[in-house]
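Input for the complex:
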Amino acid sequence: MKTEAKIMLGLGLFFGLMVAVYWNWGHENAGSVMMFSGMLLGFLPGSYYYWWSRRMRARPEDNPNATQSQGAGVVGAFPGTSIWPFTMGMGAFFVVLALVFGIWFLVPGLALVVWALFGGTAESRRGGKV
Amino acid sequence: MVDVLDRPLVMDEPAHESHGPSGVLKWITTTDHKVIGLSYTITAVIMMVIGGAFAEIIRAQLATPNGTLVSLAQYNELFTMHGSVMIYLFAGPFAFGALANIIVPIQIGAPDMAFPRLNALSYWLYLTGAITMLSGFFTAGGAANFGWVAYAPLSNSVNTPGAGADLWIGGLLLTGFSAIFTGVNLVATIFYLRAPGMTMFRMPIFTWNLLVTAILILLAFPVLTAGLIMLYADRHFGTHIFSVAGGGVPVLWQHIFWFWGHPEVYILALPFFGMVTEILAVFSRKPVFGYKGMIFATLSIAALSLGVWAHHMFTTGVVLLPFFSIMSLLIAVPTGIKIFNWIGTMWRGEIWFSTAMLMAIGFVVTFLIGGLTGIYLASPPLDFFTHDTYFVVAHFHSVVMALVLAAMGGLYYWGPKITGYLLNERLGKIQFWFLFIGTQVFTLPLYLLGLRGMPRRMAIYPHDPQWKFLNDLSTVGAVLIGISTIVFVLNVVVSWKKYPAGDNPWDGQTLEWFTTSPPPHHNFYRLPPIRSERPTWDYNHPEHRSVPHGHVEVDQ
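Predicted:
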């Protein structure tokens, strides 16, 4: 986890230096705001990873001499199939069409998005089964 | 002694595997990263063919000075949609949606992507985004016609009324969210689902490049999405964010667009850099030369790419020229390291000139041409001279055609792993020569056209014999590229389930070559010990095991 933290903190540091130089040199707002936001995007997850990396034991994937048996056990829940991504995708499609062809497309669009949100959440809570 | 142990257990629903849906329902409901990746691959290749067809029409129009194949308005739609389809719907999704989806989890020994349902949603947003954008052709006013960069105020509702422009914005919103979700998924997968022993500095270069690409996506795409919402608000809600009349700033759109647009160049390129690195190493029978140097070069390119956006805006007169020029020129250093390392990887190797290898070498040559001309454009005095001419068109077509060569190399290299069957090598080599020669005949005359002053985005041009000859030459190149695509499609048809690949047809080095072709559900029945960045090679060639970065080998 330490390497992951270093990557993100390095990104934040890079943006921090860049925005300092850019703002002092050019006084340009748009680019300065975007680079400042980039700095936050580096520092926020980076500091979280760093905080955890100091408190957790090295994971098998961080141990250069780990054997495969050290990683045995439950890796995670991986659903075999699910209809909800397709449902939400179609909902988002209709929502975007409402931007072009009229507000009434929002009705099926939002209905599908909300249905997929509830369906997907229920599917997760029941361990992949609905 | 090198032993093989059972792979880690995965919590799965056996019923889903044995009694799951089949046919179209299986395609609609799948959350398997390989099936999703294959869907991405097929959709992206279809988009490449559509975008390529637009290009052939553009080149046919420009074969004569006063071409009448299409009207001026249709020409505007064609070059807008050619750029949009190739950048937004082909190159990006093929790189981080298609091959990354299939290969990255297998290369790190993971059973799937970290969020399989989010992964499926990404594909559906991409597909519906593509349909939305292309459906502009079927509206009364035609498709979007403001260029793929949609500069304000050309893209406002007065200058570009009609549904085509709105469909372009809507399509981009959908594909943008698709990319962001894929970025989240790739970062989480690589950070949390690596196999035991697969430390960060043992990951294959392709996976490293996809990690960096995903971080770039998370930094760049939200900015574009915000910009598109502002553009839509200007068009329909009466805001004046990009309009001088209402107190807005048109050049703000350029800042927002290029803050996304320049990292996007590397979001497109880095995955293909990774593909080529893998191919060159495997077909040279050597480890990657300068493994850590390659990684730091990738990180440097990505970081610098976030600070160069305004080199696309030198001629606006309102950007900090020295800052953006210095930053742009600096990118040549890590890119040069990569090219040096690619040559170093091949140096004294036992080179096998397979189709994939030829495509990879073709990539290096073509990318070098595109990269070197990019250094010219990073210099403001030269950029002022060539801005908005065919020189710029030639530069980025050298770059993107290099990526097409790499993409084809990736298909020949990993296609057998995905499908279980090889493509015909003879037809592949014929395709390569058409593609490689066609690319140079297509792009090199465009550099000269630009230096002779021909502007971009012209449907007709003056009767200058030099311009006419160079345009004709470029059109011949485009036809050769078109023929190469036909040869590729022919190869897929001719080779269909004809040449079984086996698990490791190229004597590959990384984990994907350890499993079956195609891989089983959740990818592995077993995993080898991972003691270097080449675990499959170490397992298959215990006498030549890698010694990772000077560390002493420890047997388990």
